Amino acid sequence: MLPQEGRRWRHIEDRLRQILSGHGYEEVHLPIMEFTELFSRGVGESTDIVEKEMYSLADRDGESITLRPEGTAGCVRALLQHGLLYNQTQRVFYAGPMFRYERPQKGRYRQFYQLGAEAFGLAGPDVDAELILMGLQFWRSLGIETRVRLEINTLGSSAARAAYRRALVAFLTPHAAELDKDSQRRLQSNPLRILDSKAEKTRQLLIDAPQLPDHIDPAGRAHFAALCGLLDELEVAYSVNPKLVRGLDYYTHTVFEWKTDALGAQDTICAGGRYDGLVELLGGRPTPAAGFALGLERVMLLYEKMHHDEEFASAADIYCCALDVGYQARVMALAQKLRDELPGLRIRTHAGGGKLKNQMRRADASGARVVLLIGEDEASSDTASVKYLREDRAQETLATDQVTDVLKGYFS
Ligand code: HAM
């Protein structure tokens, strides 16, 4: 990521982090590598991620380790290992790179950056709604909410999901030959994913297949109805997509995806749901849990599409020049004073000397709005000249101790 993108990235990530901490979520830093077994157990042996997308290698002891393809399993592992899930609730978030061996294209990368939030020990639909509302806050704070829509679904309890899986396999098996290749493979390993298939023939077959909503247990239905009720009351727009099943095995009950129509095929910018069985599966006591992760590259693509911002075009706000090497120390001291007194501003000092014309060219290229100059006259009168590069405003000469106040006013 190059500087201009980096500036935009920082802006977006700062906003999202502010919203997460504003909801009382605390940051955890998790390892980038984990034992492979964590993902095969946690994410699921027969998921695409584990079957064909992990970067795994044997370390020097022959132990298989994997670059994390996602953050939830590692987060559960860490909190369990440190006793933070026993008899208590936790709300945490993490940010960092994830790795999947996928076919790269716009919005889909082999290294991508997720910001994820997880809530533990809370079984009710209220926390599902909180996670969804946080997403909505994200999009609003970035001004992209008009191009993002929410899809939700429920998978019911793990028992309900297993019963549905059996019913679906029983229905599809006699038609196996008519399914597309991927779906044939999934029929044994991960039949629910067949619901996602884009192949026309498979979609036709699915019309008469058993429907997931008919298999949801009463408690699962009640949970989902309560969530929908909360979202309605909070006036959060959503659509129920009964085919939304997600590609990771740990989900139970609520699942959701934030989608956009602005990015082509890679249209999910954020996704998550409830995973009440995962803590137990990884060796803890039964603990309800829910969370989501967003793909920051995708969020940024959408942001760029919707904002033609100049804000990130510049590398500096103020550019400081010495007209002769003899005044360099004076310029550096003034720049430092300004950095101390105006901490939000980016202040670059010219390095490498040279003629005024060349220094001004560099100042212009940096995108700075103001140039501070110190030459012989300024040095002898303890002043600095101030030039405004982007406005029709006359150059002025200010006493050194006035510079802060004038620039503070100018940049506010
Ligand atoms: P996921 O749906 O696999 O869920 O990924 C979440 C988000 O990460 C996606 O919606 C997408 O924005 C982004 N993403 C995934 N793969 C790529 C890629 N190859 N390139 C760019 N972006 C990508 C999870 O990872 C779950 N751990 C989410 C979760 C947290 N569920 C509960 N808690």
List keywords for this structure.
21% strand; 16 strands; binds histidyl-adenosine monophosphate; alpha+beta; elongated; 412 residues; 41% helix; five-stranded mixed sheet; single chain; eight-stranded mixed sheet
Structural write-up:
- There is one protein chain.
- This protein is α+β, with helices and mostly antiparallel strands.
- The chain folds into two domains: 3-157 and 217-306, Bira Bifunctional Protein, Domain 2 (BirA Bifunctional Protein, domain 2); 318-411, Rossmann fold (3-Layer(aba) Sandwich), CATH 3.40.50.800.
- The protein is 41% helix and 21% strand.
- The protein has 15 helices and 16 strands.
- The chain has helices at residues 3-22, 36-44, 48-53, 72-81, 125-141, 158-172, 181-189, 200-206, 218-233, 278-281, 296-306, 328-341, 356-366, 376-381, 400-411; strands at residues 26-27, 33-35, 55-58, 64-67, 90-99, 111-120, 148-154, 239-240, 252-260, 268-274, 289-295, 318-322, 347-349, 370-374, 383-388, 396-399.
- An eight-stranded mixed β-sheet has the order 1-5-6-11-10-9-7-8.
- Helix 12 links the parallel strand 12 and strand 13 (347-349).
- The longest helix has 20 residues, at 3-22.
- The chain is elongated.
- The mean pLDDT is 96.
- Histidyl-adenosine monophosphate is lined by residues 70-72, 100, 102, 108-109, 112, 114, 116, 118, 248, 268-273, 275, 291-295, 297-298.
